[in-house]
Design goal:
Number of domains: 2
CATH architecture of the largest domain: Orthogonal Bundle
Oligomer: single chain
Shape: elongated
Protein name: Protein kinase domain-containing protein
GO molecular function, one term: ATP binding
CATH superfamily of the largest domain: Transferase(Phosphotransferase) domain 1
Structural class: alpha+beta
Order of helices and strands: HHHHHEEEHEEEHEEHHEEEEEHEHHHHH
Largest sheet: 6 strands, mixed
InterPro entries: Kinase-like_dom_sf, Prot_kinase_dom, Protein_kinase_ATP_BS, Ser/Thr_kinase_AS
Helix content: 40-55%
CATH class of the largest domain: Mainly Alpha
CATH topology of the largest domain: Transferase(Phosphotransferase), domain 1
Distance between the termini: 179 Å
Number of strands: 14
Family: Belongs to the protein kinase superfamily.
Strand order of the largest sheet: 3-7-8-6-5-4
Keywords: ATP-binding, Kinase, Nucleotide-binding, Serine/threonine-protein kinase, Transferase
Radius of gyration: 45 Å
Number of helices: 15
Length: 459
């Protein structure tokens, strides 16, 4: 019996009695769930069932395990954050290349796709200006602007197609050029893209302004500024608007020279118009000229150095209008800006004589207007070239001689002998100044050099 008690006592030494030591809820007092359960156990009677105690124990163990896992994850994320903040330079060196230096402004923007327009660039004077933003029109907008291409709004017909007058929603009057179908003009896509590409690059007071385009299915439409007073050819034929006196014709010549000079020298990229002619010169109500129709225009060579023949011209298919075509370009298919200079020389003869470049109804020796005018000029009969509707005055004769001299230099058979368009501008300024000075001198009464009676009395 005593041995059994001793064995029981030795066994009880390993198992804590329920009455001795801290209670279970005190050992797990840090757990909120157990603390709450322990609080309730202290307030309840000691007759709670043992199954309820075991459930509370397991629940508190789960809460403790969840909180421990969350604490470990938070500690890991904090360690990673500290390690990243401790070495940012190393990460930058290994993951990010050094930023490239911005290129210095070159003064001209680069092309950005077929219809790309840069956000801004420096013009010829070096001033930064925002480039003109064009629009892509929908067919619904075009039909609304032109009243479904109403025949009453048709204002012209050309090689590109029909031209209609339209009105945009904001009230702006525009000219809507509707291209011919591919069956009628197989090159319509090339001409359309060329015109849009060129006009999106340029903006000048003597050039027709570009508003936008439409390319949808078989439709190719270009929307440009509406110039209300017709073409120069219509005015020279005396079938539209006010008669052009010689002073106005000189102003028109200067406007065209400024526009072509801008295309050659001051645009985004050198541009060769290839179709300078009187029917492509539009006149405003104040008789200021605007150059239009860039369907044949072509980008020239930028930065061609002297002695570099391969960089001074563009070899391309011959485009243009008979009577205005540069003969050297016609023979060699080599296009330069001097081809525009030749066409401009023909235009000057046209302004002086009011004749078309090719007069099919005249006798053979007068059919080619430029050749006939040159022959009369060399023979000393330049007055025969002057438009018969213009008054023949000493000022007109002087201006005519200077104008024809410039025109024949522009039409030189060798392109290197022709002046640049900037030189043509300066020469035309001199012609206009001479003409105005002589007109003013003719109007001002001349003072006599003979002494009057009062002067004799003083002597």
């Amino acid at each position: 019996m005593a041995g059994r008690d001793r064995r029981r006592g030795s066994t009880g030494a390993h198992l804590p009695p329920s009455s001795s030591g801290p209670p279970e809820h005190d050992r797990w007092a840090w757990s909120p769930a157990w603390s709450e359960r322990g609080g309730r156990s202290r307030t309840t009677s000691s007759s709670s069932s043992s199954s309820s105690s075991f459930k509370s124990l397991f629940r508190s163990i789960g809460v403790w395990f969840t909180s421990a896992t969350t604490s470990a994850a938070a500690a890991g994320s904090r360690r990673k954050r500290r390690s990243k903040e401790a070495s940012p330079a190393a990460d930058d060196v290994t993951k990010k290349p050094p930023p490239a230096a911005l290129p210095a402004p070159t003064g001209k923007p680069s092309g950005r796709g077929l219809y790309g327009i840069g956000s801004g660039y420096r013009n010829g004077s070096g001033r930064l200006r925002a480039s003109f933003q064009s629009s892509v029109f929908s067919m619904e907008e075009i039909l609304r602007a032109t009243s479904n291409f109403s025949p009453a709004l048709k204002i012209g017909q050309g090689g590109f197609g029909a031209v209609y007058k339209g009105v945009l929603p904001d009230g702006t009057a525009v000219a809507v050029k509707r291209a011919k179908q591919r069956m009628q003009n197989p090159n319509v896509d090339v001409e359309f893209r060329s015109e849009v590409k060129i006009m999106a690059r340029i903006e000048h007071q003597s050039l027709v302004r570009f508003y936008g385009y439409l390319e949808c299915g078989e439709e190719r439409i270009v929307v440009v500024e509406y110039v209300p007073n017709g073409t120069l050819r219509e005015h020279l034929d005396r079938c539209n608007g006010k008669f052009l006196d010689l002073g106005t014709r000189l102003d028109i010549a200067i406007d065209v020279a400024h526009a072509v000079t801008y295309l050659h020298m001051y645009s985004d990229h050198p541009i060769i118009h290839r179709d300078i002619k009187s029917s492509n010169i539009l006149l405003t109500n104040s008789l200021r000229a605007k150059v239009a129709d860039f369907g044949f225009a072509r980008l020239g060579i930028a930065g061609g150095g002297e002695g570099s023949e391969a960089r001074t011209h563009v070899t391309t298919q011959v485009k243009g209008t008979a009577g205005y075509l540069d003969p050297e370009y016609l023979k060699t298919c080599q296009l330069t800006d001097r081809s525009d200079v030749y066409s401009f020389g023909v235009l000057l003869v046209e302004l002086a004589s009011a004749r078309r470049p090719i007069e099919t109804k005249r006798e053979m020796k007068e059919r080619l207007t430029a050749r006939w005018a040159m022959a009369r000029f060399i023979a000393g009969a330049a007055a025969d070239v002057l438009d018969p509707h213009l008054a023949r005055t000493p000022a007109a004769d002087a201006a005519l001689h200077m104008l024809l001299d410039l025109a024949f230099r522009c039409m030189g058979p060798v392109r290197n002998d022709r002046p640049a368009m900037a030189d043509c501008c300066r020469a035309l300024w001199a012609v206009r100044k001479t003409y105005r000075d002589m007109l003013a001198a003719a109007v001002t009464p001349q003072t006599s050099d003979r002494p009057t009676g009062a002067d004799l009395w003083r002597i």
